[in-house]
Structures are given as C-alpha cells and as structure tokens.
Amino acid sequence: MPEKKHEIEVTFLVASYQASFEKLKRSVLSGIIQEGVSLEIIVCDDGSDDPHFVELRALFLEHGFTNYVLLGGEKNAGTVKNVLKASAHAHGRYLVAVGAGDYFCHKTVLRDWYQDCITHDAPISFGDIINFRTKNGQDEVLSVPRIPHCLFLYQKTRSHLNTERYAYLLCYDHICGASWMVRTDLFFSYTKLLDDRVIYANDNCFRLMIHDGYSFRYYPKEVMNYEYGDGVSTSSSSTWSTRIQKDMRETDRVLCEMEPRDAFSRRVQRYFRKAESCKSSKERTFLLFLSFPEYVSIWIRNKIGK
To answer: What is the pLDDT at residue 2?
Structure first.
C-alpha cells in the first residue's frame, strides 16, 4: 500500500451487495452527521444489479458532503476483494468497515473513539455494539450473547497477549466485524494476505494481526448498531455457515505460512497443522487440550459464554 499523508483521521467504509437504498442511506447518513473528526466515506459495491450510486450522489449533495468515493464492481467477487479494493483507496489514518444497514450509535462516536486510539497509541480497537433487526419497519433491539465471550481478557489494565491469542485464534472467540477501528495500513496489508484464498470472511484479517502479536484495545462504549442475522457471519443459513467454515480453515492455513513471531505463534502453527488431519471436532478439541493444557480454563469460559 503506498505511503499516504493522513490529513483525514478516519475512513468509513460501507461494503454492499444487493443492498436496498434504505440500508445504504442509513449507514451513510450516520457517517455524514459525525462531528469533531475529519472523515471520508467509501461505499464499495460488489457487483450489485443496482448499486444505488445515483441516489447516493444526490444524498451526499443534499448534505453538502464532498469527501466520498463510490466504487463499483463488474461482478460479485466476494467480501475480501471488495473491502481490499476499497481500503486501497482509503486516505484515513484509521478505518471502520461495516455492511450496508449498520450505523453509528450517535454523532460523536468517531471523534471519541478515534481520540481514544490516539491517546493509547492503539493500532486496533473494538467497541460495543447494539444488535438489532428491522421488523415491520421498526427496529427491534435483540438480546443475544455478547461477543467476545471472554471480554474480561481485554478489560484488564495489563494486556495478557498470549491468553488473548488463545481465545481469539484457538477458541474462535471472535469480535463483531462492525465494531473495529483499525489503522488503515494494517487493515490493507493483512487483508491482502487473504486475497485469492478467503472469499467472504474479511474479518479474518484480525486473526492474522493477533497472531503477529498485535493486541486489541477494548473501547468500553457503544459504537455501532449492528443488523444481526442479515450479514455473512450471523446468518442462520447453512450455506453461509459452510462458506464461513471453509474460509476459516483457509485462513488458518494462511496463518501457518506466516513467519512465526515468537514461541507462542510457533505453537499455534504446530496445532493447526496437526488439526488438519483431525476427523471430528472432538478430536480437534482433544488435540487443543494436549497442545495448550494451561489455557483449558479459557476454553471453558468461552463455552460458558456461548
């Protein structure tokens, strides 16, 4: 990624495929109204029949917002390629990426969140989300288990990186993709490692980051309203579940090809290589207990959280 001057503080990336204009409008407007932060908005479409760019241009014009980019695609290539294409055009120091329909909780979210990242010199941060769904034209807040389940690991004053890595990499205790703020150069470089290997699970770039030793800062405030059940990761479709599992296994293979940064990352890679030959989830779990016996309590806490 070419070196860029960061006159813009945050890039707000809205990824879309066959989304309605109403969902795009909701996401984009939540960015337009942000106060106290220099912002650009990128809408990246992945080959929709109608990307609604005409309506979006009119929306930006109506609100006098000029710092935006609309990126189309000739065909549906998958989420990874879509957000990689968009992040290559991003000029913000940090980046927040969501799907169409997700929107910020209030108009000073980005200002406060960005300042927290700068104050604590945090390259990667995640906040809280409000899960909702729209039913009969009304938003309904959902009561679903919060993620990550082992949030307590990130609430401590001192980082316990290897424990965080165990939970995130080996227990798959992931964080919602709409709740991240990440340095743009990191997002681009680690997403690039997934290109042509992983199709949909673009958030898996954070698996590669934490494997490389990047710690995640927890920002303990609500940042995003997340449309639960509508996106790739929370869909109840068995087809999408199979696709995500395939992407997860391929991400773990990418991880094993990376240069190990320390003894813990070498242990992780050894486990994933051995796990390739496991014939069941029970066999993988048994192998995990043998490979990392000192972290069994974290595995149990994650299971209880679910």
So the answer is: 46
